[in-house]
Request: fold
Amino acid sequence: MSGHSKWSTIKRQKGANDARRGAIFTKLSREIILAAKQGGADPAMNFKLRLAVQRAKAQNMPNDNIDRAIAKAAGAGADEQLEEIQYEGYGPGGTAIIVAVLTDNRNRTVAEVRHRFSRAGGNLGETGSVGWQFDAKGLITIPADGKDADDIALQAIDAGADDVSVDGDAVEIQTEPAALEPVRKALESGGYTIENADFAMVPKVMMELDEKTQHQVLKLLDALEDLEDVQRVYSNADFTDEAMESYEG
Reply:
């Protein structure tokens, strides 16, 4: 996605290179299928599906793949039972981590997630063990592109946004989950390009770590994101620019 920013330290999504594109498309297809099953196959009437389709297009997923995923939700492949689960645990340095998954095999997924935590020196916790450290929010990113950030902020707040921040060349807007779509629509109507709109678990307080521990946390987040069933990973680790630049993966 975009470069290092405030929210990239909260919800990290690595860009799709050729080696990982197939795996990313599989994750996106699952998300589209579940959204279409839950709310219908028309993105205009199904906000969750519309967000999933937007994320797929942002990752350059072909329209044919998107159409097949929507059709599968009501077609022959509809017998695949996908389950949304949120796992919580502690990473290196006591960092709080939330892992959102879509799976057709709960036992397989929890074993894989637990193994990743254990290898990193962390541990998978019980439901609620770290969730209290996060708030469910809507997040919108708008590229500044020379536009006045204050104007964007005023329009976003008028539309119902809770908080607006500027990070480099991006304006990042935080909303309550129910306000995500109204704020997105208002900004789009105002002529602004929406780079990303999504739901996220936002940490209430960021945790400062030394550079070595930051690298250990980054390695764990990468290992979790590489699991096929994992859709999102959230952390309260506060990564410095220096640590991000020196991290080798």
